[in-house]
Amino acid sequence: MKNLLRVVLVLALAAGLTACKKNVKDDANADMTAGTEMVLEETTVTEEVPAQEVSLGAVHFALDKYTLSADARKIVEANVQAIKSAGAVASYKITVEGNCDDRGTIAYNIALGQKRADEVKAYYVRLGIPAANITTVSYGEEKPVCYEATQSCWAKNRRADTLLKVN
To answer: Which of 134, 158, 146, 164 is nearest to 63 (CA)?
Structure first.
C-alpha cells in the first residue's frame, strides 16, 4: 500500500512538472511569424485625475489666544484669493488644522487648537468661501514644526494650517 502511494505521488509530481514545461521552440517560431499583419485597436483610457493637496499660508497666534491679528487676517485673505482661483477651475475642499505649542495640558491644547481652526474657518466664510467646503481639526501639540524649547520655536507651533484639496 505504501509503495502504491509513493508511485501515485511520483506520477502526479511528474505530470505536474511536465504540464508546466514551456515549449521554447514554439515561442520562437511564433515571434518570427507574428507582426506582418498586426492590427492595433485604438482604446481610450479615461482616468480620474488624483486630487492634489496644497498647503496655503499658515496663520500664527499669540500665546493662549485664538483671535486673528491684522497680520493673520492678511494671510487668510491671500489664502482666499488662491482658493477662489482654484475653485474657478475645479471643485475643492479645505481643511483648517489648529495647532498649539507643547505647553499646557493635552485637553487644553486640543480645545485651543479647535478654537483657532474655527476662528480661521469663520473668517473664510465671511470672505465668501462656502462653509460646506471647510472642515476643521485640532491637533493640539501633536504636529509641531519646531522642536526646541524656545519662545521663537513655540511661536511657530501656535498656528492654523490651511490645506486646499483640489479635485
So the answer is: 158
Q: Which three cell numbers stand for residue 130?
A: 462656502
Q: Which residues contact 75 (CB under 8 A, 6 or more apart)?
A: 57, 58, 59
Return the ∠ at Cα 53 (arms to 76 and 45), rounded to 5°: 145
Query: What pLDDT is attached to residue 9?
Result: 46
Is 95 strand, coil or helix?
A: strand
CA atoms within 13 A on the CB side of 71: 6
Residue 164: closest CA among 111, 110, 99, 85 = 85
In the Cβ-directed half-sphere of 120, how many Cα atoms lie within 13 Å? 37
Do residues 124 and 117 make contact, with C-beta atoms less than 8 angstroms apart?
A: no
Percent of the chain topping pLDDT 90: 62
Q: Which residue has the cell 465671511?
A: 126
Return left, alpha or beta for 128; rule: phi > 0 is left, psi -120 to 50 is alpha, else beta: left
Question: Cα angle vertex 59, ends 149, 154, to 5°?
Answer: 5
